Amino acid sequence: MTSEPIYHGTGPGPITPDGCAVDYYATLQPRGEPELIHGAVPAGARILELGAGTGRVTHGLLALGHEVVAVDESPEMLGHVKGARTVASSIQDLALPEVFDVVLLMSYVIETADDDLRAAFLRGCRRHVAQDGCVILQRQPPEWYDTVEPFERDAGDGHTVAMTDLQRPGPGLLGATMRYTVGERTWTHYFLSKRLDDDFLEASLNAAGLSIAGFLTPDRGWVRAVPA
């Protein structure tokens, strides 16, 4: 476990324990994730979405015919989810009496710099995936950690996104502050994340009873894992 702070957030409205701004997340739209997932799982799959937030991806999966259980530790986030069963829980403490065809862990949650917390996340995925099911993870491509630089860009729909205060405090670690602006409102989110190359990720998955079964995208950022 690193001694560096892992998350911190500021701005108007509720801020979750991992530094995410509920009011900002409520403004976001899907960017092709529901269709990507839909193409990689069985029709009508029962999906457990861990860290579902305000339902940005949830709602698209529902529209594509899937049954979704949306999990988030923030009741304020889940208050924006419509049409899905919701469960207010941290990922590591979740213990539902059922398993699912698909378990989703997106938004780079798996890249937390806290090794113990990552291991607990993966054990939570394994607890809830059916033996013939799959876990879909989203990570940054490993080379991103070497190439990313501070930026500011127009993200469309009146959103501006910037990365500032970028640092690399140790091997495989990257810390930065994201700044999000919508109209007159601005939020910041500091994160410290850890590079997960294929070998490290496979070892981490194996420790939780999972293994890599393939990738959903050419950049290998979306990973499909199955029970070992």
TrEMBL record:
One of its GO terms (biological process) is methylation. CDD domains: AdoMet_MTases. Residues 47-133 form the Methyltransferase domain. This is Methyltransferase. GO terms for molecular function: methyltransferase activity. Pfam families: Methyltransf_25. Keywords: Methyltransferase, Transferase.
